[in-house]
Amino acid sequence: MADTAGGSVIRTWRRRVVEAFGSPKSGTRHPLVAAAMVLPLAVLLSIVFGGWEAVVTQASSVAGMLGR
């Protein structure tokens, strides 16, 4: 009986947290949405830290491996 009581307490606590902060997100993000979120920051960081040439080199290498 002690094991089921502990589970009940955890479920009650989780329900209260979900009510306070909203429902937990489920599922996955579409890859294009993820890329649209990450690419602007990646470009900004590469310009700020002077890594633009390395980014171009890596992108051309990947494009070459893909056959484009």
Structural commentary:
The protein is built from three helices and no strands. With 68 residues, the protein is an all-alpha fold. The radius of gyration is 23 Å and the shape is elongated. The termini are far apart.
Give a quick summary of the entry.
This protein has helices at 2-21, 31-48, 52-66. The chain is mostly helical and 68 residues long.
Q: In oligomeric terms, what are we looking at?
A: single chain
What share of the residues lie within helices? over 70%
The ordered H/E elements are HHH
* Class of secondary structure makeup: mainly alpha
Q: Tell me the radius of gyration.
A: 23 Å
Shape: elongated
- Number of separate strands: 0
Largest sheet: none
Count of individual helical segments: 3
Mean pLDDT: 78
Low-confidence stretches: none
Indicate the topology:
Layout: H1 2-21, H2 31-48, H3 52-66
Short key terms for the protein model shown above:
68 residues
